[in-house]
UniProtKB/TrEMBL annotation:
Residues 1-19 form the signal peptide. PROSITE patterns: PROKAR_LIPOPROTEIN. It holds the Pfam family DUF3304. This is DUF3304 domain-containing protein. Keywords: Signal.
Length: 163
């Protein structure tokens, strides 16, 4: 037992001696800036407007983490904890990915669009239109059936993208 302990200690010393020899100097520490942005967890919903195909499943990329959140079929709202900035600012673009079956085969589409201007964060609604057009809005108090919703339920053509 004593010989095994001595051998173990000798091996540790030899390996640690090898580990301290380097052929090139260590790189200096790189400082990555930390940005503290107030975020709000919101639900995700979806609406397929007249003329748009059935959406089998969809997901939206979080603005800062680049994590894809979603996975439900269009027509419902899911409490996924999508992290949306408390304050809107220009240039907020997200990737939307959706699946719609064509002749029994999965057909995935991926597009990048802006999140429309909002005053308060709320449920993130993805609006699908004909010709694979998509718009994303945040609405804290109104669902697509409400006349106060940023994109009305009755609209059949995608409104222009905001910057």
């Amino acid at each position: 037992m004593r010989i095994q302990n001595v051998l173990l200690i000798a091996v540790i010393f030899m390996l640690s001696a090898c580990a301290t020899k380097t052929s090139k100097p260590a790189r200096p520490l790189q400082i990555i800036p930390y940005v503290d942005i107030a975020m709000a967890p919101v639900s995700i919903g979806c609406l397929s407007h007249d003329g748009a195909p059935y959406i089998y499943s969809f997901s939206v990329e979080e603005f800062y983490s680049k994590r894809m959140v979603g996975g439900l079929s269009c027509g419902g709202t899911g409490a996924f904890g999508y992290m949306l900035p408390m304050q809107w600012h220009s240039g907020m673009k997200v990737k939307v990915r959706w699946n719609r079956p064509i002749k029994g085969e999965d057909y995935w589409i991926e597009k990048t669009t802006s999140i429309r201007r909002y005053d308060m964060p709320g449920t993130l609604f993805v609006h699908f239109f004909a010709n694979d057009e998509v718009r994303v809005v945040s609405s804290p108090l109104s669902y697509p059936q409400s006349p106060k919703h940023p994109i009305l339920n009755s609209v059949t053509v995608a409104p222009p993208e905001e910057e």
